[in-house]
Here is the input.
Amino acid sequence: MKSMFRCPVCGGPLDKQEARYLCPAGHSFDRAAAGYVHLLPANKMHSKDPGDDKGMATARNRFLSGDYYAPLRDALAALALKYCPEHPAILDAGCGEGYYSAALFQALEAQGRTPVMAGVDLSKHALRRAAKRENSIEFAVASVYDLPVADQSADLLVNCFSPLALEEFLRVLRPGGLYFYVVPGQRHLWELKEILYDEPYLNTEKLTPYEGLSYLEVVPVDGTIQLPDPQTISDLFQMTPYFWKTPKSGKDRLDALTTLTTTISFRIHVFRKDTL
Here is the structure.
């Protein structure tokens, strides 16, 4: 079966077989029992277990499975239906546990379209869950800065809170292809930040033009979520960059909470790759 992925060693096309991926040069990559494949070369791994660890992946999966971010999921699916062609090739760069990947794929299929989709992430722990969430999508351990995907092969690239690897994204997008870039709005998780910091700060919101891309629209997604228990609060906290840079006093205040109501705010920047 033809794969969206390319060999990370020689760049050749990969054939997806029952237990492995194989390129014409004979490079072989075993598929894990969970369904994903490891395409990050050892000399490009900065640790033995890159990306989110098992605990963080579990927390993210538990939180997202509670549909607290369903408004963002649904907005992304609506945009995919609005812009994608009938047979789109889609890449989720930094897909995590596949919550948004699966939503886009399933929304397109429900409307009679025939998407081909792949997702990459550094965390094998996240990808185990992604492959179970939607087994029709290919998932691989890989870096967004060195995507194992052919030049100009994607109709849509989705980047939800992941690093901006613009050169790679432009490489894999077809001329006229779409790029959905999700960033936090100004007051995203404001009430959480009020607990964590003595002087919380607003996120910066701005339009940022990128060479080779043209803006189509910016879609705001705003709302309020109610977290009913300490476990859910902790799960959300582990998903944020604040997890790494919160002072002990803020962490102590968070640990004392039993419930939390907080703002969610996202901005989906929709671009099209220039055709010239």
